[in-house]
Task: inverse folding
């Protein structure tokens, strides 16, 4: 039996999921792009992972269109006039989402929805109905948890409607981020967002000031899990260093930083160079897509994302510490973590990245959240291992030492007792403090929600239960959530009381 | 600077006043309530050494006639608290206002202010004055959670740097108050009026008892007649968790029923109290 046969006969896959997997199988029959045998070896040994991105990148991994152009000009390719009311606006967006590719085949960015839709709000009751239907349509048709919308930083009618409807619908999709700046976001809007987050596991809070200082005013978006990317651009590719495994090849922290890590970092950077050149020089996407032709995207705004995972376990291996006494609990371990990131950042600042003009011609670090196959000894990005989290204050203070290194994405997740639902303004105090102290991205949810945040994406526990009954479920990511729950204890985070 | 025995510091609390706050619990209390959830906060340690013998983690030692607690070795199993026959605990840190403010500064970006509770915070008024003066200099809020045993008007300097008092009114009937807390309530009731008149009454709290509907009603009627719509009222449900045998004997093993909570809520509403919360 072939792999294709297995896909076609798998009863837990929907038709759409089978199409996606068969396409990947076909893509991987091609060998046009050179892959360094050393890279392949590192991949096989578990030192580097390419996240199954495929052998022949026919589009960038993450695409972040500037949807304001659709609102202003419509689209010639999609034969859409500029929308004139809330129904036309939501309809135009839903049409365009079907034509925005990504590594998952679904759009990983849906726009800053409140600023896109607020101008069309006339009759508030009608607008709220339109927004509710719009969100329902997204959950049922863009059925993948890496589909991500943004709101904020300003309070708006549309923003409040999106939050209210998000709470009412209790859907895993879309992922949602509030761009939060205490000076631009009203306390009331922030508290509404915090309450919605507690009961629906979204939105997360992004550090608007930090992202703005790196990308420029209004020039960034949060896509997929929590990926900071340039608007009208995106991320070319995202492989990752599996630091937890790489550390096992080092004889000491110095050996790791000076010899072992640079070897794998060079292999990965060279691999990224090749893929990005292919995307710009050979693949049709940047030459023929309406997204580029009509100004929704500019190739100069794309960046290569240099991922890493398992910093906690790497540090603990290098220092011979267990997870309760090492990274997150010990200054020596935390200092070593910072030193490792500084050395990678330094490496990237010296490696000239192709076709990355608006990103300083370099790759940017991304704290990858892990995949279900990583198992329990590989914590997401720079997070403290689940089960060894200190109290929330210490966990936040720890994260603030690391988040500045990751413009293309890093974040931490906190699980709260139900009592916090009554005091969302107290949670806003914590979030405000966390972001002003240097945390980049804050996610939370209540301990017993149906919708829960796994590592960076959301799933419904009720869908996992259906999957366990061997039923096919709509959301692509439910199976990933099941794996992370079983293999990485992703549902067992410490509860903040 | 004055020192105080600190029983516990909670860095983030969402239930001790508005917003996220650091909550600090001071040792010793002049009341001994039936329903006390933290009876180990009532008395100062007499250094008898009983707990040193039962500590399974070698975290308690008798040094120069005093029980000394090793915080690093402690696993928070609370065997010492269960051993203690004097409503106390060896896990006390004597801290000055200056050393405590350092802890506050570490948490400052995350909090609206501090709330000092107990035990009874007003057993340490000199410390509170020093501490709140420092907290105010940081631009943070200052609340007291008190049983009203001491007359606040006697501490005008403290009240200048204190934003407000969350006042427990355990019972309005003097005889029942005496029975319930082993203390007199005339000062509590005086404080209720004076704090309201000086705009320092943050909220009033009444614990609703499971088996004393008449006392519940009497206390609510009294408090409502004073505060009316001018201060928030919290009705706290009695829960047996942590309560001593003596209290369990009087109040039982069950929570106050939701029916009784709602009856009290409706009663308070009918008496013109506007801001009422059940907890």
Result:
């Amino acid at each position: 039996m072939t792999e294709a046969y297995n896909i076609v006969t798998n009863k837990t896959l929907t038709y759409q999921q089978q199409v996606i997997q068969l396409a990947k199988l076909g893509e991987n029959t091609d060998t046009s792009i050179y892959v360094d045998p050393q890279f392949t070896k590192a991949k096989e040994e578990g030192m580097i992972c390419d996240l199954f991105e495929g052998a022949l990148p026919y589009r960038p991994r993450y695409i972040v269109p500037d949807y304001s152009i659709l609102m202003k000009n419509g689209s010639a390719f999609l034969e859409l006039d500029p929308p004139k009311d809330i129904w036309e606006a939501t309809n135009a967006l839903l049409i365009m989402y079907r034509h925005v590719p990504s590594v998952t085949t679904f759009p990983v960015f849906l726009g800053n929805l409140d600023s896109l839709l607020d101008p069309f709000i006339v009759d508030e009751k009608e607008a709220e109905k339109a927004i509710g239907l719009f969100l329902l349509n997204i959950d049922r048709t863009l059925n993948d948890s890496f589909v991500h919308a943004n709101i904020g930083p300003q309070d708006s009618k549309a923003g409040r409607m999106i939050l209210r409807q998000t709470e009412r619908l209790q859907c895993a999709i879309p992922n949602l981020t509030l761009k939060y700046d205490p000076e631009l976001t009203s306390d009331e809007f922030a508290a509404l967002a915090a309450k919605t987050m507690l009961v629906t596991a979204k939105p997360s809070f992004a550090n608007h000031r930090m992202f703005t200082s790196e990308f420029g005013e209004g020039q960034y978006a949060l896509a997929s899990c929590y990926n900071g990317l340039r608007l009208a651009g995106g991320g070319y590719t995202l492989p990752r260093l599996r630091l937890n495994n790489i550390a096992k090849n080092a004889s000491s922290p110095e050996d790791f930083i000076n010899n072992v890590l640079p070897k794998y970092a060079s292999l990965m950077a060279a691999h990224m160079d090749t893929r990005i050149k292919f995307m710009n020089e050979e693949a049709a996407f940047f030459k023929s897509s309406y997204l580029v032709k009509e100004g929704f995207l500019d190739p100069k705004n794309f960046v290569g994302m240099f991922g890493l995972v398992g910093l906690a376990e790497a540090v603990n291996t290098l220092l011979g510490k267990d997870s309760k006494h090492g990274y997150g609990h010990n200054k020596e371990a935390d200092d070593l973590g910072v030193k490792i990131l500084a050395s990678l950042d330094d490496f990237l600042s010296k490696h000239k990245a192709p076709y990355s003009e608006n990103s300083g011609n370099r790759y940017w670090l991304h704290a990858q959240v892990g995949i279900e196959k990583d198992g329990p000894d590989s914590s997401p990005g720079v997070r403290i291992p689940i089960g060894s989290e200190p109290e929330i204050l210490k966990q936040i203070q720890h994260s603030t030492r690391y988040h500045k290194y990751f413009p293309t994405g890093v974040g931490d997740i906190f699980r709260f007792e139900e009592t916090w639902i009554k005091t969302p303004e107290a949670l806003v105090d914590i979030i405000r403090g966390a972001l002003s102290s240097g945390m980049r991205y804050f996610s939370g949810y209540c301990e017993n929600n149906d919708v829960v945040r796994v590592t960076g994406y959301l799933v419904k526990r009720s869908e996992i239960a259906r999957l366990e009954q061997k039923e096919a479920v709509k959301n692509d990511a439910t199976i990933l959530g099941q794996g992370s729950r079983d293999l990485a204890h992703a549902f067992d985070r410490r509860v903040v009381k | 600077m004055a020192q105080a025995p600190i029983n516990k510091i909670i860095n983030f609390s969402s239930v001790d006043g508005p917003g996220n706050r650091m909550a600090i619990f001071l040792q010793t209390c002049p009341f001994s309530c039936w329903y006390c959830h933290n009876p180990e906060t009532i008395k100062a340690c007499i250094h008898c050494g009983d707990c040193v013998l039962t500590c399974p983690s070698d975290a308690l030692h008798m040094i120069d006639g005093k029980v000394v607690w090793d915080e690093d070795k402690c696993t928070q199993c609370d065997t010492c608290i269960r051993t203690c026959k004097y409503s106390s605990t060896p896990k006390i840190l004597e801290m000055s206002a200056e050393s405590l403010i350092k802890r506050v500064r570490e948490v400052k970006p995350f909090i609206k202010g501090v709330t000092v509770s107990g035990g009874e915070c007003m057993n340490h008024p000199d410390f509170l004055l020093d501490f709140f003066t420092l907290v105010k200099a940081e631009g943070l809020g200052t609340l007291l959670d008190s049983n009203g045993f001491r007359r606040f008007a006697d501490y005008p300097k403290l009240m200048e740097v204190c934003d407000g008092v969350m006042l427990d009114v355990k019972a309005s009937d003097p005889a029942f108050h005496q029975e319930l807390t082993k203390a007199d309530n005339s000062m509590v009731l005086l404080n209720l009026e004076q704090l309201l008149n000086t705009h320092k009454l943050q909220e009033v709290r009444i614990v609703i008892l499971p088996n004393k509907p008449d006392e519940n009603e009497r206390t609510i009627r009294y408090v409502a007649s004073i505060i009316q719509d001018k201060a928030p009222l919290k009705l706290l449900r009695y829960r047996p968790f942590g309560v001593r045998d003596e209290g369990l004997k009087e109040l039982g093993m069950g929570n106050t029923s939701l029916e009784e909570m709602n009856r009290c809520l409706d009663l308070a509403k009918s008496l013109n109290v506007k801001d009422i919360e059940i907890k």
Summary: Residues 62-226 of chain A form one domain. The mean pLDDT of chain A is 95. Chain A touches chain B at residues 391-393, 396, 419-420, 422-423, 425-427, 429-430, 432-434, 436-437, 496 (CB under 8 Å).
